[in-house]
């Protein structure tokens, strides 16, 4: 790995770690300050606002690649026009989508007993926050295209810290009405910082997008829409689950699901963040494969599969074992719904993280069809399960109290099955035997590790019991991991690094 690639990977991982920790503190503080029911109502509106992110049509992701090409060609005027065109397009499309969704909100989000907590301040705060987030992300994408991951990481960390400071000062005084204010400040500060960095790198570009061109915005739709299909399906899955939980009057479970979802997403992104900057290496290996040398491409893919599965299994098993400790830290007590949310949500992100090498290989080869189909299948399967659940409730109303847990189970199934199908389909397409992943051994070790993590939460809900039990379970997970193929690879790599003989 080159020095610049390693720095980019380190910057991406560090930013993910800090912003994830800040986000978890943000929502943990809101849960303690507002209570899970009140927070659940706000999260339902936030979920609806996040659906509007689909309106950017993948232009942000398209900008990264197009900006990199313009930079490599030394075409500064085109680079500036690309950035300005994307900023204007996303700002307008997001604004219109937010106005539409927030206007339809009372018909889409039914909060039951919590309906009184939906005044104009909450709706306006969510809309402004989401709009600022997407506009800031466009400027961050431009910097990523210029290979300035370090500046993106620094700007995002500064924004996250500013948002946390705002949260701590305002929520204790004004409550749920200003729940979005910390995030508004976060994205405003990071967006302005991205703008300032772009001005330093591109002095010809002003603060306002004066060089926008419709033709350039339209050019980015092809690749952008294919990537947006993958990203948007997962966003819709999250939002649909939250809206269904709100309609089932399970606002506390909604809050716990959101916390577990954020922890799972943060852990997954932290584990795969460094891999994203390796996509160019996969692309180069794919080019060699096209000339008849497919061995290096397949070897790189299989190595990443083995190592990533070991990492996600270790991290998510340990995280599952800490569920009761997280509950004690955020709620002061352990509730069954809290543990249930973690048991059904963390496996979603573990499985999705484990198949990330397939996504990387598809991006490196430029063949995104399999990834798009898998993400579309996730959304389609969830809608099918939700429809079946609604039909069952119409015939057996007594099932209504179980609607919340059933929704979380539907999310787990709708993500897991297409991910496994994508893995099988990729191996078949590449003519790689499935045995190269040691599926039987991996499944046995995986179930054992998750059983150990889940078992900790069956013990007494006391930090003096949960703490030592979690440490013991974490050590047991490490012992179980020795049964995976990647353990030998890691041991050999460490021995080489320490200068010890391989035997």
Automatic annotation (TrEMBL):
It is a multi-pass membrane protein. The keyword Magnesium does not apply. The chain crosses the membrane at residues 12-30, 42-59, 79-101, 121-143, 155-175, 220-237, 307-326, 338-359, 371-394, 406-426, 438-456, 468-488. InterPro entries: Poly_Biosynth_Transport. Keywords: Cell membrane, Membrane, Transmembrane, Transmembrane helix. PANTHER family: O-ANTIGEN TRANSPORTER-RELATED (PTHR30250:SF11), PST FAMILY PREDICTED COLANIC ACID TRANSPORTER (PTHR30250). This is Polysaccharide biosynthesis protein.
């Amino acid at each position: 790995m080159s020095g610049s690639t390693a720095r980019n990977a380190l910057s991406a991982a560090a930013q993910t770690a800090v912003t994830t920790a800040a986000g978890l503190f943000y929502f943990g503080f809101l849960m303690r300050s507002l209570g899970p029911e009140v927070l659940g109502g706000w999260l339902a509106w936030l979920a609806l606002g996040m659906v509007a992110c689909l309106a950017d049509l993948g232009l942000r992701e398209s900008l990264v690649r197009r900006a990199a090409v313009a930079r490599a060609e030394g075409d500064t005027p085109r680079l500036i026009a690309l950035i300005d065109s994307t900023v204007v397009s996303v700002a307008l499309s997001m604004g219109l989508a937010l106005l539409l969704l927030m206007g339809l909100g009372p018909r889409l989000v039914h909060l039951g007993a919590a309906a009184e907590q939906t005044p104009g301040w909450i709706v306006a705060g969510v809309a402004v926050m989401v709009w600022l987030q997407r506009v800031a992300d466009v400027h961050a994408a431009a910097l990523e295209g210029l290979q300035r991951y370090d500046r993106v990481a620094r700007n995002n960390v500064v924004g996250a810290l500013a948002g946390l400071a705002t949260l701590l000062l305002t929520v204790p005084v004004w409550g749920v009405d200003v729940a979005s204010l910390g995030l508004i400040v976060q994205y405003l500060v990071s967006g302005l910082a991205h703008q300032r960095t772009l001005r330093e790198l591109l002095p010809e570009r002003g603060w306002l997008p004066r060089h926008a061109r419709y033709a350039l915005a339209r050019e980015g739709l092809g690749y952008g829409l294919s990537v947006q299909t993958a990203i948007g399906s997962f966003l819709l899955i999250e939002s649909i689950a939250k809206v269904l939980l709100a309609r089932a009057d399970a606002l506390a479970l909604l809050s716990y699901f959101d916390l577990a979802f954020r922890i799972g997403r943060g852990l997954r992104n932290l584990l795969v963040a460094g891999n994203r900057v390796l996509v160019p290496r996969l692309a180069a290996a794919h080019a060699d494969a096209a000339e008849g040398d497919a061995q290096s491409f397949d070897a790189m893919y299989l190595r990443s599969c083995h190592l990533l599965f070991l990492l996600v299994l270790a991290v998510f098993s340990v995280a599952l074992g800490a569920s009761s400790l997280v509950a004690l830290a955020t709620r002061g007590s352990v509730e069954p719904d809290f543990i249930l949310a973690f048991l059904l949500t963390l496996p979603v992100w573990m499985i999705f993280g484990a198949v990330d090498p397939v996504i990387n290989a598809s991006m490196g080869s430029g063949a995104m069809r399999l990834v798009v189909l898998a993400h579309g299948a996730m959304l389609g399967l969830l809608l099918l399960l939700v429809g079946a659940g609604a039909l069952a409730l119409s015939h057996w109303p007594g099932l209504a109290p179980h609607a919340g847990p059933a929704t979380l189970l539907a999310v787990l199934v709708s993500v897991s099955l297409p991910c496994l199908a994508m893995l099988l389909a990729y191996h078949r397409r590449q003519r790689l035997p499935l045995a190269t992943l040691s599926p039987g051994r991996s499944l046995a070790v995986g179930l054992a590790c998750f059983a150990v993590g889940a078992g900790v939460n069956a013990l007494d809900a006391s930090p003096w019991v949960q703490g030592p039990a979690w440490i013991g379970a974490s050590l047991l997970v490490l012992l179980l991991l020795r049964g995976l193929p990647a353990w030998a690879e890691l041991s050999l790599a460490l021995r080489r690094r320490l200068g010890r003989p391989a035997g």
